[in-house]
């Protein structure tokens, strides 16, 4: 049984890492082809659904990241993370939030909020809160990795800044619109956190 778990771990974790890397390719491509069309400072990543082929490519990124995160969660649980603990539930919420956000796209800038747009925003709020908190809990109970802890703290602070940056959108004239900038920094930190969690799972697998 232990041998089977070890072999499955050797498959699941590399696939999760490949999925994380692969999820970056479509969204990086969208950033390149939309230069001059969307502002990376003002527009969120979700707004790329309104450029050519953006809806499909962004869905590929979100669903690939969701699947890779689910695989990473499985690898962490098989490395000893409690499957019914708060950290596992929060990682599951992050993964589910990505899938929901992909199924329910955002609204065009300036348009009234639709049902789909509202679901998208709530899913985003859940996932951006869930992953930093999950990482923090993992760093407290599962691994001594300073990278996991630092990425979790930095992502948590940036997540709050991203939420607060919505004020400039809701109340025009209250400040510069930096929504896209904060979100991109947040995504960079979250990717860093996911890779740090993968490294922690590898170390736990080797030590066990």
Automatic annotation (TrEMBL):
<dbReference type="InterPro" id="IPR009339">
    <property type="entry name" value="DUF998"/>
</dbReference>
<feature type="transmembrane region" description="Helical">
    <location>
        <begin position="118"/>
        <end position="139"/>
    </location>
</feature>
<feature type="transmembrane region" description="Helical">
    <location>
        <begin position="12"/>
        <end position="34"/>
    </location>
</feature>
<feature type="transmembrane region" description="Helical">
    <location>
        <begin position="54"/>
        <end position="77"/>
    </location>
</feature>
<feature type="transmembrane region" description="Helical">
    <location>
        <begin position="181"/>
        <end position="202"/>
    </location>
</feature>
<keyword id="KW-0812">Transmembrane</keyword>
<keyword id="KW-1133">Transmembrane helix</keyword>
<keyword id="KW-0472">Membrane</keyword>
<feature type="transmembrane region" description="Helical">
    <location>
        <begin position="151"/>
        <end position="169"/>
    </location>
</feature>
<dbReference type="Pfam" id="PF06197">
    <property type="entry name" value="DUF998"/>
</dbReference>
<feature type="transmembrane region" description="Helical">
    <location>
        <begin position="89"/>
        <end position="106"/>
    </location>
</feature>
<protein>
    <submittedName>
        <fullName>DUF998 domain-containing protein</fullName>
    </submittedName>
</protein>
């Amino acid at each position: 049984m232990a041998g089977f778990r070890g072999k499955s771990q050797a498959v699941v974790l590399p696939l999760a890492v490949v999925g994380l890397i692969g999820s970056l390719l479509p969204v990086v491509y969208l950033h390149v082809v939309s230069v001059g069309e969307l502002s990376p400072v003002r527009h969120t990543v979700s707004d790329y659904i309104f450029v050519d082929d953006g809806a499909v490519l962004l869905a590929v990124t979100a669903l690939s990241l969701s699947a890779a995160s689910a695989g990473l969660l499985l690898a962490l649980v098989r490395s000893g993370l409690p499957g019914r603990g708060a950290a596992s539930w929060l990682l599951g919420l992050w993964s589910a939030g990505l899938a929901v956000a992909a199924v329910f796209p955002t609204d065009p800038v300036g348009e009234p909020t639709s049902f789909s747009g509202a679901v998208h925003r709530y899913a985003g709020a859940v996932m951006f809160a869930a992953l930093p908190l999950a990482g923090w809990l993992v760093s407290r109970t599962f691994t001594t990795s300073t990278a996991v802890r630092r990425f979790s703290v930095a992502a948590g602070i940036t997540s709050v800044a991203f939420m607060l940056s919505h004020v400039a959108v809701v109340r025009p004239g209250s400040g510069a619109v930096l929504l896209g900038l904060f979100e991109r920094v947040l995504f960079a930190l979250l990717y860093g956190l996911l890779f740090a969690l993968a490294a922690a799972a590898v170390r736990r697998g080797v030590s066990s």
